[in-house]
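Notebook, bench 3.
Goal today: get a predicted structure for UTP6 small subunit processome component from Oncorhynchus mykiss so we can plan the truncation constructs. The sequence was checked against the plasmid map this morning, with no discrepancies at the termini. Length recorded as 515 residues. Pasting the sequence as submitted so the record is complete.
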Amino acid sequence: MAEIVQQRIENRIPELEQLERVGLFSKKEVKATALEYKLHRLIITKVDFIAYIQYEINVLELIKKRRSRIGYQFKREEIEYSIISRINSIFRRATTKWKDDVQLWLSHIAFCKKWNTKAQLSKVFSSMLAIHPEKPALWIMAAKSELEDRNLSESARHLFLRALRFHPESKKVYQEYFRMELLHAEKLRKQQKELEQAEMDLVNSVLEMLMVFSVLSTGADFILSLLTIAAIFDFTKELQDTIIQDLQSKYTDDSLTWDFMAKRELEATVGEELQTAKGRASDIARREERCCQVYEEGLNGLNTEAMWACYVSFCLERFKRKTNVQELKEKRQERLLAVLQRAHDSSLLKEDFYKNWLQVLLSSGDSEQTAAVAMAATQRYRQSVDVWCLALQTMVHLGSGATGKLFQDALKHVNPKLSLPLWQLQVEWSMTSQSPVETEALFQRGLLSVVPAVSMEIKEKYLDWSYRAGGYKKARKTFTSNLRDFYERALREFGSTDDGEILKSAFKAAAVPRG
């Protein structure tokens, strides 16, 4: 081992002599014997390699700073290049020993990029992909590096094609391959060379991608992602038209297609500039109406929850937009409420939209309709805690006399293990809206719950309410008659902890007779 270390240190003598000769380092600063010895012990760790690599990188950074300070820019080949070569060698030894450590490979790549060792960078990527071909992200990173760092479009294309052989169904690989082709075409376009052939190759590549993914039954979301990428480039209008045609012909059974086609109506160009606010509002109203016509056409052949969700989301987004034109505001609200009602009547309205529906109705002051929608939501989603809480909060806000019965209905339909929010809401409502006798009866029922989280919460609130309602005597009576056993069990469980000490103090204070 000593001979190997000595040989490697002797190989460094020329570079160390140069460092000392040109005044970048002193004689005492050119020793790394201990670190080299660590890499040749019988038991070697990854930390040893990382420490050595970090040491050498620190040396590089120090040389860079001292060059800048003294203004000496010569002898780079004898100094920096030698150190960079050694660091690459240490990285190779580390990645050979710990092949599965992707982060180690990525650290080597980051080093190569920072110190501009492009030839070495390609070799690292090649070795890493041979070990980790199952990771699409690494293929994409390698191809991007070839294109962006080395400006080798053909090499990047070759890597993407290899990646697709390993991952023929990876949308991300196809998307990045598509982006790379567009970047390459843009580069040729700017250079005004081989433009016509580049555009033809580009269209052929896209058509091939679309054909492959049509066979794989990929949804419209992938086609739309390609369209989004293409829209970044200003020379892809024909290509975008090709993608849209494919979308319309093959993906009419996907709600995203109809959502995209409907929203395109908002982007239609206007013949002449509209000067007045009313004129602009009128134009916007016509565009929104055309969007709705597309949604309606989609619903004729695709009456699904996803399709209604797109339609409702569109109406809701337009409703939330600010406008000073009252007529447009009222039209948007009317349209939103009508679509929500139709989706509900079709039993295809998503749970989340009921909250938006109730908020709109409450803001309009229609109490009767608000109560009806709240009740309808609970019928549609009987087992949903969130829907019951929303409906109950609405009924409490409206001051409905049927709120108490509604709480009982909610607890019957909801899973007891999930019922804590309902109990909390009912307790808060009872303490402000019911008589003390009724509230105490509610607490007594809550104490009997078989769900520990519910009974625990009720016990705490019961004791707090008793103190606020009847003072210390009432709280003590509640404690001794209902909660004593609970706190004794808690003391046995937590008696040796800090929480136990707090419980013990509270228990003793409550148990002491007072006059």
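Residues 32-37, 506-515 have pLDDT under 50 and may be disordered. The first helix runs from residue 2 to 11.
Flagging this for group meeting.
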